[in-house]
Hints:
The structure is a homodimer. By secondary structure, chain A is α/β, with parallel strands linked by helices. Chain A has 21 helices and 12 strands. The N and C termini of chain A lie far apart (59 Å). The relative contact order of chain A is 0.12. Chains A and B meet through helix 7, helix 10, helix 11 and helix 12 of A and helix 7, helix 10, helix 11 and helix 12 of B. Chains A, B: It holds the Pfam family tRNA-synt_1b.
Amino acid sequence: xxxxxxxxxxxxxxxxxxxxxxxxxxxxxxxxxxxxxxxxxxxxxxxxxxxxxxxxxxxxxxxxxxxxxxxxxxxxxxxxxxxxxxxxxxxxxxxxxxxxxxxxxxxxxxxxxxxxxxxxxxxxxxxxxxxxxxxxxxxxxxxxxxxxxxxxxxxxxxxxxxxxxxxxxxxxxxxxxxxxxxxxxxxxxxxxxxxxxxxxxxxxxxxxxxxxxxxxxxxxxxxxxxxxxxxxxxxxxxxxxxxxxxxxxxxxxxxxxxxxxxxxxxxxxxxxxxxxxxxxxxxxxxxxxxxxxxxxxxxxxxxxxxxxxxxxxxxxxxxxxxxxxxxxxxxxxxxxxxxxxxxxxxxxxxxxxxxxxxxxxxxxxxxxxxxxxxxxxxxxxxxxxxxxxxxxxxxxxxxxxxxxxxxxxxxxxxxxxxxxxxxxxxxxxxxxxxx
Amino acid sequence: xxxxxxxxxxxxxxxxxxxxxxxxxxxxxxxxxxxxxxxxxxxxxxxxxxxxxxxxxxxxxxxxxxxxxxxxxxxxxxxxxxxxxxxxxxxxxxxxxxxxxxxxxxxxxxxxxxxxxxxxxxxxxxxxxxxxxxxxxxxxxxxxxxxxxxxxxxxxxxxxxxxxxxxxxxxxxxxxxxxxxxxxxxxxxxxxxxxxxxxxxxxxxxxxxxxxxxxxxxxxxxxxxxxxxxxxxxxxxxxxxxxxxxxxxxxxxxxxxxxxxxxxxxxxxxxxxxxxxxxxxxxxxxxxxxxxxxxxxxxxxxxxxxxxxxxxxxxxxxxxxxxxxxxxxxxxxxxxxxxxxxxxxxxxxxxxxxxxxxxxxxxxxxxxxxxxxxxxxxxxxxxxxxxxxxxxxxxxxxxxxxxxxxxxxxxxxxxxxxxxxxxxxxxxxxxxxxx
Lengths: 435, 435
């Protein structure tokens, strides 16, 4: 019964987010009000919901990202920008860029202009440690950030928002901090360079930094409750911790939050790779930045990594069958993909051979776009599956054969992460860059 | 013109606080709504206004403190409590207690019960550094706190809310911090023992303490916007910094905010001496305390120190003629008292001799109740002034003769406060107590 009530309340909340109206039995919603990017939640005409706490769509292909760009007022990552990145860095653009997985940006041309003029920037990304286990989808921003750090050779700061999780979840402070440390191990296992990377827990770093809290207070002075109500949909019943939290996620966008790294300089611009649902935090940050004498952070936005069950929702760390976890065994990976990965194939082999499968909704194929680096092979699979030459089981096998060694290697690297290594990454210190 | 507009806006604001209605020319206010101590501002029937930002009354004798006790739900400091303090400490109660300057408390009997059972507590008080100069009224909580520390021999923490001043005033962070340091010198000059006292700036200590921010977040999780709206009168147009600030003033009430001093223990109760206008912060703190596993702070509340112009308002650090400043010369002290101190005397010497003066509204006499320790002499002055035997000029001379050496001695002690002494007081460290 509890489960059913919970589901009902959740549905009512989603209803309210999508329609902007309270659910009333027997009374269909009136027309959806456009929020023009300023409303608490971005909803497109076909009722996609995207904010830091909810990502939902009724479309099996997933969120309509082109509409989201218009609504959020960001810029599409077009071929021209991708070509320019290749020119400036001398490196082939990452397949996340080539395939539109990172699809939207803010001010990337400004970052590249400055970079060409030998003016440096830094990378800032983060993670909300809501449990000790991360899934493959959580790797996306870190894989891309690692690539960016390597091709641009810049400092990187990674925020673990354990305070946020404490405020939003029914967890103790100590649990949230423990999750932060566990997640930190997975992040380190992605292969970041300890000489160029600083990872921090909010709960810990706030009490260690002469710059972080000052920036938090500066931001908090320049954002009203009306504004966070508009951007995040907070209400009068929300705790004051949630209401003021956006300033905590905003502060690492400013280099003076890290005086050890930037030698007290406040003029180093940040570039933030993140999933598009985090954009509301940084729209707010960009609004405040010039008013407190800082440059606006630039952004790279990614699409969402689909749940095994389909692209309608983001994966949930709390549902073990919604995703492949970084702790899964080879056998679990195989079983989950075979059993749960939503298929674009036809009901019978005969029909499949005749009509072909649909890669637009096939989750295994979507996962391959994230993890199979070889463009030609991916295109071959797409063609073969669409024509019916490739069966669903065969498609799934490609994915299993990629994910099993990828995750095994991750687990191997994670084992090497000792307490001492964690301490090195998490100690406020100068990095291998002079400012 | 600017001044006049500022005054008008201020009056309109006060009007709104008192009546709960917007000012409208030619339309008198309807009946005042009682807020029963839960409203944003405590107003008594005769329209006293008391909150952390406004203290105002139309009564020349000042605020009606008995009504405030009922409204705030605190307890009167009665003779029984004063006698008990004398019994427990073996010391004659401070004249601030004997004369009702500290007139209200919360849970003092609990503190004394525990103290008698050899269970320690600590003192917590503070100051909002809104300018570099403090006036004599600002000394009251510190004089009393010093006495408490000496008779009970307990640790003391003093919070300088430079972050609050940054949020509320049109000042830069650097200015607020500088004011904190300047005020710190005046506080040290009161004679606190460096081995038993920790003074901290919020802006600085937040980045130095492994315990402070964690308590702030815990408090912020357990207080909603609705609650701070009710307690402090915040609106949707207020910045999120103001909205979440009450947690910052609450956190030092909990011993785990000072792990260096209390060895990580969270069970040491605090006793907070403060002016009654700060009580809303601690009503909120006491409400949260049991829900996060801490004991409620006990409180001592003082009356307000009257402005030279009369007891209707608290003094303002921004109006040089409203008070005696700790930087005033002997000549300035004399001139200010003679020129600005509101007199309860009659218009002519003849009338004064015949009808006598009114010590209930005479500011010089009120100041003497704060600074003249000799009870008998004070009573003699009261009688003589009331009978007309003592003229206003003579009464003022008594006050001048007390304040001139008192402030000269303060200035002398303040000169001795070197940067090194400030650093000693402000360094997070163990004090001369074992926990």
